[in-house]
Amino acid sequence: MPARRLLRPALIWALLHGLLVVLFFAGALQRAVEPLPAATAGALWGGFLVQGLFVGLVAFLATLPLLLLGRRYAWTAPLLLGLIGLFFLLDSLVYDSLGFHVNGLVLQVAMQPGALAETGLPAGEVALFAALAAAALAGDAWLGSRFLRRFAGKGRTWPLALAVLLLWVGDRVAVAALTFDGGQAVMAAGTTMPLQPPVRMNKILARVTGRKAVADLKLDALPQAGTPPGRLDPAAVRLTRRPDVILLLIESLRADFFTPEVMPNLWRRAQEGAVFTRHHASASSTHFALFSLFYGLDAQRRDAVIGAGRAPLLFPALRQNGYQLALLAASSVDWMNLKETVFRDVHDGLQTDFTGVGHERDVQMIARAEAIVADARKDDPLFLFLFFDGTHFNYTYPERSAVFAPAWDGKGSIAAARVDPALLVARAKNAAREVDAKIEEFLATWERERGSAPTLVVTGDHGEEFRERGRVGHASDVTREQIHVPMIVIDETLAPGRRDVVTGHVDVVPTLLALLGDDHDPALYADGVPMHEARADRYVLATVGWEPRFALVGTEMKVRFLSQDGGFGSVQVTDPFDRPLPDAEARFRAEAPRLLRTLRGQMGAGALSTAE
After folding, report:
1. 526 is in which domain, residue-wise?
2. Are strands 497-504 and 382-388 parallel, antiparallel or unpaired?
3. At which of 488, 509, 535 does a domain end?
4. How many CB atoms lie within 10 A of CB 46?
5. Does residue 337 have a cis peptide bond before it, meaning omega lies within 30 degrees of 0?
6. What is the pTM of this model?
7. What three-state secondary structure class fits 63?
8. Cα 217 to chain centroid, rounded
9. Does residue 270 share a domain with residue 325?
10. In this predicted model, what pLDDT tens digit does every residue of 319-335 receive, in sequence order?
11. Strands 550-553 and 558-564
């Protein structure tokens, strides 16, 4: 049978797979249209079916080179279509988790040793998923081969393909028209499906209709890295106080978990220190957050600063002043070359070789830390960094901390996006309670060994969503759940109490150096300030990290920038808890100069505009 007689059924089989892709993305599509008027959402749902057919058409075109195989096209084409379908299934899972499609960064991370384990996916679960995918692929290819042979030679191929293409072109125009009246939220929904380029016709439609497009606030430039602060010579740092210092970083710990019910021991200790209630991670992804934490620089500077070969000031400055350094991370810092960048000056003192699941790694880390404390010189101060992993997905703990119930059992983590959010929260709170218990036990050991309480800093690298906005996890947005984290500083020179000023990870290094007596202006080396000196009207910058999505957070207002074509698209202005503000546009324009100074760009007054 000539292979060309198989083209029509192959196209239909591909289009059916395209409609299946719509089903894969159904959850993401529903979330995308929820904020929109019902009529607009209904129109978009019709368009999603057309977009699915277009995805199928593209998949069909990918099979055409297989015609060179002759009759073998009957089984190789369905096999390729099945593989493409599996890829889009994986893409939908990535999109549900991270908010963007599979790209080079996702592939780069996935290829790193132990990457899947570090995301909380057990190897057995991944193997089971792979086995089921292989079985589904085999069954799909067999059915497809039968379908192609059964309907071979019936009907013409290219008129149907052209009809699908014209429908898709019409859909792109329709989405552009809906965007004209509905703004960037419509465009975002209309490009949720893969392979859907944005098409904008605002100027054309304005001329045709005599109306202006809906006025989305815009900032027509990305935050610029600007000129980093000058390099302060570590030898110039003079510390007039040299207490022991412990910096505790807790994976994925959001601010509302710091309560007497969830973390009773830390809550009790915090009454003797300063609690910064409006602290925000500089990024919702770990490697960018750690950059800010130890460099004192905004996360969007990371690539430029590290590319220039700069190392953090903190570690050599402490060594110059006689500190012993020890750094232990149960949570992974092996990703994105953190060992060779953030921790390159302390590579010999950084220990990460812990095994097992989260809380088991924490047990090993604490045991190692206790040994370090026992062996440390008593006459010289000790700086210790501990990075806890038990609160990382999928939130592990022993039976003693199973306090909040009912809770998710942690199984079936690939399908966690469908678990009742209340069960997820209960499990995550139990994991946080276990970390709290471990911290208390360790601090008691420290005080016995060292004879006094240390200067203590406790925070989270970033927060975590539990399907408040449809996703589970972090590194996908700059929502309150992902960037609002606890910050506790306990030091004998710092007055205890709650501080409601806005602070960020960029403030940690300036705070430590100021508490230890260094009198250099933080502007010489950091974007932050000592937290106890922060102004009430400041903004801090947060980013996702690996995609251009930013937020500026102040005391009364939060400005969230949505990326669009390499620049900023619409601007969402809310209160710091992501709730709408009735006078958002007026507040945004009134604060524009301060916002632009925070972004450190050379954008000028003309950067603020409304959509044309």
Report:
1. 241-535
2. unpaired
3. 535
4. 11
5. no
6. 0.79
7. helix
8. 24
9. yes
10. 999 999 999 999 888 76
11. antiparallel
